[in-house]
Every structure is written in C-alpha cells, then in structure tokens.
Write a structure and sequence with these properties.
- This is Polysaccharide pyruvyl transferase domain-containing protein.
- Pfam families: PS_pyruv_trans.
- This protein has a seven-stranded parallel β-sheet with strand order 3-2-1-4-5-6-7, with helices on both faces.
- It contains 17 helices and 13 strands.
- It is α/β, with parallel strands linked by helices and about 425 residues long.
C-alpha cells in the first residue's frame, strides 16, 4: 500500500506535464462541439416564457466560493430584479451543495450541469423552466484557456436557448493569448441574437482578430456591485483608521497559487518566500501597514495557501502593522473595505475591479495576461502591473516598484475617480439591447 501515494503522484505529474490533460480536454471539447452542431439544426421553439431569468455561472460547483463570482452574481441579480421585479432568478448548478449555495444567495437552483450530462440534457432541462432571459457569466471562463470543454458547453447552452427565443447575454469576458480554436468555432456560428461582450480593449482586439462574431466592448458587470457597510467592515475600518492616525499608508494585499501556471506550480513556496521578502521590506519602512485580503477559497487555488504562510512568517515581528482577518468577507463587504484603503496590490482581477470601483488605486500581479486590458479600460497606468515571474526573479526590484507606486497614490486616485463615471456606464452596456 505504501506504493499508492507514489503512483498517484506519478499519475498527477504525467497528467499535467505529458500533455494528457490537454489531449483529454481537446477530445471532450470536440465531442461537445459535434453535439452542439447537431442541435443547432434541430433546436425546438421554447414554450411561452414565464418571467424567469437563468444565470449560467462561472463555477456551477462552488457557485460563490470565489468572491469575484459572487460580485458578478450579485450585480446580475440586482440589475434583473430591478428590471423584472416579479421575475424568478435561477442559477445553473451541478446539484448537491451547489444548490444550497445558490439558495443562500437568494437564487433558485437549477441542477442541469452535472458531470457527465450532455448539452442535450442541460438544454432540455433549461427549456422546462421557460426562461425569458439567459445570462452566461463571462469573466475568464469563456475563452477556453482553462478548459475548452467547459467553455464550449456553456456557450452552446446560451446559443441554443437564444435560438429557442430567450433574450441572451454573455457578460464581459477576457480573452487571453490562449484563445482556444474550439471556442472560436462556436463563436463563429453563435446565434446573432446573443449579446457578446468583451470586458476590456485588449480582449476585444484579440476576439475580433480570432472570430467573425459580432461583439462589443464593455466594462465588467461587477463594477455595478453596491458596497455593503456592516459590523465586520467597521472593525477593519477601525484598524485602518488607527494605522492612518499614526501616519501610515494602509495597503491591501492579495496573491494566490494561480499566479503560476499549472506546470510551474511547484515554485509556489518560492513565490510565497519572495512575497514575504517584499512585504518585510515594505513594513520595515515603518510608515506602511498591510491588510491581507482573502478573495477566493476554492481548494488548490485558495488565496489562504499563500496569505496564511506569509502572515505566519512575519506576524511575530510586525503584529501591529500586518493584519490577516479571521473570517471571509462577502463581495459587497470587500468593495466597502477597499474604499477605505490607500491602495490595493492584487493578484485577483475582481479584487482590482472592486478597488477601482471604490475609487482606490491598484497595482496588479497579472496572470493569463488579462489585467493590462482592465487598466487600459480605466485609463490607468499599465506600468503598475507585474507577474509572479518578475517577483520571483527580483523581489527587491518589485518592492522598489511598489514604493514608486505608493509615492504616486494621490495622482493615481485622481485618475480612478475621473474614470469611474464612464466605467459604470460601460458596465451597464452588458445588458443593453442589440441594435
């Protein structure tokens, strides 16, 4: 039995590094494309609609364990409840615990995305609720760079529901350099009534270069999220006020395992140590305090896998100026908290969005090359962007870049404030009717 862990480790290594995962997802994605192409020619008409909105989430398993997903769901729900006060809002799930999570968000679960279910299964079950509106949450789950089969299935479902008469939207999403050809196959034939939205100018340019599909540039729907002040946020605001009363600049910090590509994930310990070196250098100045912000708690990509060990390395020496809050904050709470910070260093796209939406400057640690487009959209300085690779290569250089950014925070905040009205207007375009 002692050999079992070794065998499992070898299988996991081979799956990641010998191309087995890539080949399997390609095969699975192609099978789904073939099924969708058959259904396109045989899509039934929907029965009379019944004031129902269906959200297809970025993660039908965990629903809102990512704070970014929660921000998008909350913003979508609020907008469509405003438009259709009597509508019932559903979210597609895999069933089980996902249904419970949906209920906690005030949504009706629709378990149609179980592992092994076909597009036909999901489509038929969707038609049964007679949706007026179907919304595929965009973000970074549409371009196929993580899993082309997942992207194909979701795109196929929104396409087929549109062909059957539902009003259909894909909220603003990113396109990385790894835009998968199976996904472009679907976009090239997607129903012309689907509103396809790209969430930044870089993604829009990549999309239009790769596909003939009609699309428009918008801001991420999470910019519409309303902040929420409460007792939990108030306690943290008190700590921030205390730090600021001592003349300190108060920063938020987030980083996580996904900053490293899957085949480089073995360097995670090195990244944590490099970031600890950076944070130590910042705290040694004496006039900086740092709040560690959890934004995602999904298994092996959880922020705590990076933030907890960093905190444990440094808290004994900097306990008065380094805080890692107990308990997870919701998306509206994080947006409220971000408004009180002087700046946020973020490895999460939606933490950057929450911060910018709260008029707080951000410095991004990029992954899947998607943050540059966000900064361009907001007319912010793209020099305020790094990567895990640059942090690993030279932590001191990264710290010096952060110090230069801190020195410019007042000017950065003015830029963010000036950009916000147009950003919010652009976010509303996610649900503007096609012309």
């Amino acid at each position: 039995m002692k050999e079992l862990p070794i065998i499992r480790s070898f299988i996991k290594f081979a799956w990641r590094h010998f191309g087995l995962r890539t080949r399997y997802l390609q095969w699975k994605g192609q099978k789904l494309v073939n099924e969708w192409e058959y259904l396109v020619d045989n899509a039934p008409d929907r029965a009379d609609a019944d004031r129902r909105v269906l959200i297809i989430p970025s993660d039908p398993v965990l629903i809102s364990r990512s704070t970014g997903d929660q921000a998008m769901i909350d913003a979508i729900k609020a907008e469509w409840t405003r438009r259709m006060p009597d509508a019932k809002v559903y979210v597609a799930t895999v069933g089980g615990d996902a249904d419970l999570a949906a209920g906690k968000l005030g949504l009706e679960p629709l378990p149609i995305l179980q592992d092994g279910s076909t597009i036909t299964d999901s489509y038929t079950a969707s038609l049964a609720i007679r949706p007026d509106v179907v919304i595929l949450m965009g973000a970074d789950g549409v371009d196929g760079s993580y899993d082309p089969s997942f992207s194909v299935r979701n795109l196929a479902l929104v396409d087929l529901l549109s062909r059957s008469g539902a009003e259909a939207y894909i909220t603003g999403f990113s396109v990385s350099r790894d835009f998968h050809p199976l996904v472009t196959t679907v976009f090239d034939r997607i129903d012309e009534n689907v509103a396809v939205n790209l969430r930044d100018p870089v993604s829009f340019a990549r999309f239009t270069d790769a596909s003939d599909c009609s699309a428009r540039e918008v801001a991420d729907v999470a910019f519409l999220l309303k902040p929420q002040e409460n007792r939990s946020v108030g306690r943290l605001n008190k700590w921030i006020d205390e730090q600021r009363s001592l003349g300190r600049t108060v920063l938020g910090l987030n980083f996580h395992p996904l900053l490293l590509e899957l085949d480089h994930r073995s360097a995670l310990t090195d990244l944590i140590e490099a970031m600890a070196e950076v944070v130590e250098g910042l705290l040694k100045t004496g006039d900086i305090a740092i709040l560690l912000i959890d934004h995602d708690e999904r298994g092996s990509s959880s922020d705590a896998l990076c933030l907890r060990p960093l905190y444990e390395m440094l808290t004994s020496r900097f306990s008065q100026r380094l805080l890692y809050p107990e308990g997870r904050l919701s998306a509206p709470e994080i947006k409220a908290l971000s408004s009180q910070l002087d700046g946020v260093i973020s490895g999460r796209m939606h933490l950057m969005i929450a911060s910018i939406g709260a008029a707080t400057p951000t410095f991004g640690i990029d992954y899947k090359d998607k943050m540059e487009g966000l900064l361009q959209l907001c007319e912010l300085d793209c020099d305020n962007l790094a990567s895990a690779e640059t942090v690993l290569a030279d932590p001191n250089d990264f710290r010096e870049r952060i110090m230069a950014w801190i020195a410019d925070l007042e000017a950065q905040r003015s830029k963010v404030v000036a950009a916000l009205p147009s950003i919010r207007k652009s976010a509303l375009k996610n649900f503007a009717p096609l012309k």
